[in-house]
Amino acid sequence: MDSVLDERFNLFDLLDPGVLKEVCEEYANTFDLGMVILNNDRKELIAICPDKKFCTALKEGGAKEKCREAQKRLARHPMEGQQVIQMKINCGLRYAIFPLTYQFDNLGRVIVGPYRDSESTPDKIMRQQEQNASKPINTEMIEQVPAFSQKRLKITVSLLVKIINSFIFINAKRLISTRLHLDAIYGSREEIFKQVELQKTGTEEEKEEIEKFKNMF
């Protein structure tokens, strides 16, 4: 029989959205960033979207499909090890993606953004982006999107990695302990039942007590 220590975890087993979402919302408000946490099946565990005019214009305008395509690219982009990947989408903004793992098993990913590179001014992004939204994207909208230097982004993402990994590690240990405890209980149960079968010559009173004991399991 396989040990519970060999069982693979699903991200939904290790992260409680009700608990983690409050922490993620505080993080998002602090750094003015949106985020999405996905498991390996690309199912959303938590999604926090920034309330920005820029994003609203994209969603309501002609760039809606482009926005959806960008989301799919971010969700499907190959991940290697613990590497943080930055992706530039069609509107000129960036997202950071990093994997969530436990004991070298990939559990899912976190997508953080949008943000702009500190060297990319709103005017520069305006010149580069495709004007494909029915609502015009203007400089004021782009200025709402936070700017990050590479150093600041690394520190910001590292903090989020540590927060989420702490939740994963603690909950994994709890889940393993629970499974080991249940295994021990069921192992004892089976052993007791075997002993009961061997006790063919007990009194009626003893048999009644044995039946009561069986029903406890």
Write the layout of secondary structure elements.
Layout (H helix, E strand, L loop, with lengths): L10 H4 L2 H15 L2 E6 L4 E5 L4 H8 L3 H13 L8 E4 L5 E9 L2 E13 L4 H7 L10 H5 L3 E2 L1 H49 L5 H12 L2
Parallel strand pairs: 5-6
Antiparallel strand pairs: 1-2, 1-5, 3-4, 4-5
Helix pairs in contact: 2-7
SSE sequence, one letter per element = HHEEHHEEEHHEHH
Strand fraction equals 15-25%
CATH topology of the largest domain: Beta-Lactamase
Unreliable residue runs: none
How would you describe the shape? elongated
Mean pLDDT: 77
**What share of residues is helical?**
40-55%
How many helices does DSSP assign? 8
Strand tally is: 6
Termini separation comes to 21 Å
Known CATH architecture of the largest domain: 2-Layer Sandwich
Structural class comes to: alpha+beta
Radius of gyration: 26 Å
Major beta-sheet overview: 6 strands, mixed
The CATH class label of the largest domain is Alpha Beta
Number of domains: 2
Description:
The chain has 217 residues and is α+β, with helices and mostly antiparallel strands. It has 2 domains: 169 residues, Beta-Lactamase, CATH 3.30.450; 42 residues. The chain is 52% helix and 18% strand. The protein has 8 helices and 6 strands. Strands 1, 2, 3, 4, 5 and 6 form a 6-stranded mixed beta sheet that branches. A hairpin with a 4-residue loop joins strand 1 and strand 2. Helix 2 packs antiparallel against helix 7. The radius of gyration is 26 Å and the shape is elongated. The model has no long low-confidence stretch (mean pLDDT 77).
